[in-house]
What we know:
heterodimer, A: alpha+beta, BirA Bifunctional Protein, domain 2, nine-stranded mixed beta sheet, three-stranded antiparallel beta sheet, 14 strands, globular, B: mainly beta, SH3 type barrels, CATH 2.40.50.140, 3 domains, five-stranded antiparallel beta sheet, 2% helix
Amino acid sequence: MKKRRKLLLRGEIIREIRNFFHRNGFLEVETPLLIPANAPEDHIEPFTVYGGYLQTSPEIAMKRLLCRGYEKIFQISRCWRIGERGTRHLPEFTMLEWYRIGCDYHDLMNDCEYLLAFLSKSFFPDGGMVYQGVSLDLRKRCEKMTIREAFEKYASADVSTAVSSGKFDEIVVTEIEPALPKGYPVMLTEYPVEMAALARIKPGDPSVAERFELYAGGLELANGFSELNDPAEQRRRFEHVNTKRVKSGLPPLPLPEPFLEELSSMPPSAGIALGIDRLVMLFADSACINDVVAFTPEESQGKEYALP
Amino acid sequence: MYSVADLKKGLKLTLDGDPYIVIAFDFVKPGKGQALYRTKMRNMINGTILDRTYRSGETFEPARIEDRQMEFLYREGTHYTFMDQQTYEQVIVEEDAIGDAKNYMLENCKVDVLLFGEKAIGVTLPNFVNLRVTNTDPWAKGDTSGNDSKPATVETGYALKVPPFIEEGELITIDTRTGEYSTRVKG
């Protein structure tokens, strides 16, 4: 598929996503991209700009809207993260996030299934599609697998050993992701609490958070969770992130104080972030993220990017 | 010293004492997890392919690889002896490391010898070499069998397909990258 057709498809996908959320009673919102503080994370580096930071995700502002009584909101916005560049990463990328009050991560999993099926119907009305040579049916129900099960099934170590030895991410990328079924979407659920900065701990199992990741065609598309709404616990986690950052030689990040102040008024909610560029890669059958954006950062500087 | 930020296709580095060349590279990062740099590397001595995953902060020793023009002197069993024409220093390259290049090398020809430190690990030939045909069937004029090639052997002993009009004793150009006939040398 030529780039022009991929960009055309990109525009149509974004239009259909808006259709989906408008039909389902969501309010489209826009929040500031230039912000005084992001939610500090171990492995996400924000760009510093005059007056603050570029957002790494709109989550802080969107949760503040939940605190103000907005019940179902979505946003499609640009996010920036330093150093993220590969066949599936851009330092500037487009994120879809949606948040709902009175819901938990199970409801978000349902939303994901409906959204994928809706888009599949719009772009592949005859049914299945092909991503990188493998048939894929997005209308099928997602297979759900806990992280613990995925490690038992596909990995060389169990999940607690992986977490304690610092190998969790590496095993997910090198052993689990390549082994996941590719014919239908898959959700990995119940992440270890160590891997969830803003998610609620699962009642009855304090070792895991109510968090999941959505995969389709081997692409990691989305990360969603039941939101933590305990300000003291949230502050403690942010401070813990900063302690770890300082230990590994990174500067501590400012805390989003207005968010922490308002968090106690946030009803039980759930929210999710889905990478639009990756979604377009899936529908355009592209192996590289470069193919689905008008200009890569290198092209916008007039340089070449050597494809791996 | 290289860092993960230097990783790219074609980078040559030393790993466990051997030279490797990066043949594939990607940045990966599982949802909110740490950045990982996945590489596929080829051992420049024995060709073994290695998959390695690195994290930010890791460093690499560059591979000291040098191309030096040398003259092929002679072969003894599986040893090929070359001489640096400036220093008269001689190096021996094992047949395994010579690879297909042995098909195109005549004594006294000039090649680039690939050196890793003091060790010769391979040779690079020009993309095209001229070799004389020592054996091939004569061109049967009026041959209507439709064959557009016939077997031939060149002076190094290498056998390949050539067009029917090539005769014994003629000089032909061979593409050393593919091992195929390229053109007839007029003259």
